[in-house]
Write a structure and sequence with these properties.
- InterPro entries: GH, GH13_cat_dom, O16G_dom_2.
- Keywords: Glycosidase, Hydrolase.
- This protein has about 600 residues and is of the alpha/beta class.
- Among the domains are: about 120 residues, Immunoglobulins (Immunoglobulin-like); about 50 residues, no CATH class; about 80 residues, Golgi alpha-mannosidase II (Immunoglobulin-like), CATH 2.60.40.1180.
- The protein contains 15 helices and 37 strands.
- The protein is globular.
Length: about 600
């Protein structure tokens, strides 16, 4: 330990660990083993507000402490320490103790502009989710690419000026014009009947929830260009068939989360009506007096309008418009209609594009129903995210229950393909654990692939052994795992549209399937995995995931290397305290335990002998 030391991950220096509720105390302690130190100042500020400078109290001869009361409301707080010295000439000077990267142990720097501040997240309320979600295993379905349940594979209501693949083995492709815009959308014809027919497959795999990509009427196959929020896309089926699907899923104890795309709509929607399909005088583009005109932002009417990331096919909605707000989350709005159908939750597309007040309105609507869940698409650490110059309130209470855990995918790939040190992975996730309120951390919607990423097996260069390791990380980390359709079948594919192939029903890779199924079974058979505490262990080459409570544990070591590795207890390190002694850990692991290349080693049982 250095002469000046603080570690935000150890409760002897900061208690409690992690995020804190409003109007609670956090105890800060810093060790000083330097006779020339005359005092320490805690400098803490809510976000970028004016900081409080607090002279810490001397605690014995080598420690300073202060109990800070978080009474300024929810938000992210940043802090560091000023360490005051008298040098050999009795001259006063100050050094600064801050973070190195994220949380944990820090270091001293000489200049103010070198400081990296620590973070404390202060939240309003715990986001407790229903048991069906917290204990669930989800499966993401891109409806057009899953299964067609019609007799002879007939496609429901083919759309004008589109093409339908002649074979389910065809590679997805786009037909684009000279401007790079898609001129003809492509369809395989997956539908609600197909999902319903494959419920036994989902149950056998171990799935208890499905997340559906958009299902509302649209021009494209992905349906993020909504045409009508109140209508089911006819190519998928009818409202009655959707209701039948929901009923059948619920009878089989499978819950359903829908994709809510409220940042933008399709250019050819009923709301914008660029091509006049809904009438020559309907929609904002064709009629300045349309009820929908105030929903959009025109710079110069009608052709110069704000669109999502400049994509003219996706006119951006003004989410501050009261009428649009009521249309989405009012008593008789979009959410109310589909919630009454029996939908169990919503995933908000591009949550960065939705104002906090709009998300809060959606949450208020869902809270009127029993056991609904609200998730958000956020790709980074959601606790300190800034979008459009504003610090976001996503996870501070009464907004999102949880966010998509893209950091898990990022770190899993770094570990499995890039040789990232296990210690680095541990530091990254301990920082995330520290920054998120506990319930939000456990509500994370985990993924190792989605419709927006390259297929995980492609990223792993086709190594099915490492795919099993990726499935293990997906199901062991805190959060709710979600398998992207086809990953368990060995589907490959690069960037969109290659990552959206049709499900290979006649060519499922059994090795991939059984690996995924076995990790799901491990999670289901051990409640401590979805309820228990979390700690990462590591050696130079191995990463260990420990899930535990006061009685039981599951410990899994991952070896991503191309050679056999020994589990040497003497080499095992942790960033936070191990709940058992090294002697007990050695008894659990045993002598001369090894892990084959690209493999795992699983231990479970009673935490204490």
């Amino acid at each position: 330990m250095t002469a000046v030391y603080f570690n935000s991950w150890l409760e002897e220096y900061k208690k409690p660990f992690g995020a804190v509720l409003e109007n609670e105390f956090v105890s800060f302690k810093i060790s000083v083993e330097d006779d020339f130190v005359t005092g320490v100042t805690l400098v803490i500020a809510k976000d970028e507000n004016k900081p409080h400078t607090i002279a810490m109290e001397s605690y014995g001869t080598q420690q300073y402490h202060f109990d800070y009361f978080f009474n300024e409301g929810k938000g992210v707080y940043f802090y560091y320490f000023e360490v005051h010295y008298l040098d050999a000439n009795r001259a006063e000077h100050t050094r600064y103790y801050g973070a190195i990267e994220g949380g944990g142990a820090g270091h001293l720097v000489d200049h103010f502009d070198e400081i990296k501040r620590y973070q404390v997240t202060c939240y309003k309320k715990a986001e407790v989710t229903p048991k069906w979600y917290r204990e669930g295993v989800f499966y993401q379905i891109f409806p057009d690419r899953f299964y067609n349940g019609n007799q002879h594979g007939l496609v429901n209501h083919p759309k004008p000026n589109t093409f339908i693949y002649g074979n389910h083995h065809d590679e997805p492709m786009y037909i684009k014009d000279e401007n790079g815009d898609i001129s003809r959308w492509d369809f395989f014809g997956g539908n609600f009947k197909g999902i319903k027919e494959k419920i036994p497959y989902l149950k056998e795999l171990g799935i208890t929830g499905i997340y559906l990509n958009p299902i509302f009427e649209a021009r494209s196959n992905h349906r993020y260009d909504t045409s009508d929020y109140l209508a089911i896309d006819p190519i998928l089926g009818t409202e009655a068939e959707f209701l039948e699907l929901l009923s059948e899923l619920h009878e089989n104890n499978i819950h359903v989360i829908l994709d809510g795309v409220f940042s933008h709509v399709g250019r050819n929607s009923i709301y914008f009506n660029y091509d006049g399909a809904y009438g020559q005088t309907k929609g904002a583009y064709r009629n300045i007096h349309s009820r929908y005109y105030p929903w959009f932002n025109f710079n110069r009417y009608p052709d110069d309008y704000r669109s999502w990331w400049g994509v003219k096919d996706l006119p951006e909605i003004n989410k501050d418009n009261p009428e649009f707000q009521q249309f989405i989350y009012g008593d008789n709005g979009v959410l109310a209609k589909w919630n009454k159908f029996g939908v169990d939750g919503w995933r908000l597309d591009v949550a960065d594009e939705l104002p906090d007040e709009f998300i809060a309105g959606i949450r208020h609507n869902l809270d009127q129903f029993e056991e609904k869940v609200l998730l958000g698409e956020v790709w980074e650490d959601a606790s300190n995210k800034i979008s459009y110059g504003k610090r976001r309130q996503y996870i501070l209470g009464n907004h999102l229950h949880g966010v998509m855990n893209y950091p898990l995918r990022e770190q899993a790939l770094a570990f499995l393909t890039a040789g990232c040190a296990p210690e680095t992975i541990a530091k990254h996730f301990t920082t995330l654990q520290e920054n998120y309120p506990r319930d939000v951390f456990y509500n994370s919607f985990n993924n190792i692939g989605t419709h927006d990423t390259e297929r995980i097996l492609t990223q792993l260069d086709g190594d099915t052994r490492k795919l099993s390791l990726a499935f293990g990380l997906l199901h062991l980390f805190p959060g709710v795992p979600c398998v992207y359709y086809g990953d368990e079948a060995g589907l490959t594919g690069g960037k969109d549209p290659e990552n959206r192939k049709f499900f290979p029903w006649d060519n499922i890779d059994l090795k991939c399937y059984e690996a995924c199924q076995s990790w799901i079974a491990l999670r289901k058979d051990n409640p401590v995995i979805h309820q228990g505490k979390f700690l990462l262990l590591y050696t130079k080459r191995l990463l260990g995931v420990l899930r535990y409570d006061s009685e039981d544990f599951v410990l899994v070591f991952f070896n991503p290397s191309n050679g056999m590795q020994a589990i040497d207890v003497a080499e095992i390190q942790t960033l936070r305290p191990l709940p058992i002694t090294k002697e007990r850990l050695k008894a659990i692991i045993g002598e001369n335990q090894t892990i084959q290349e690209a493999d795992t080693c699983v231990f479970s049982g009673k935490l204490f002998a």
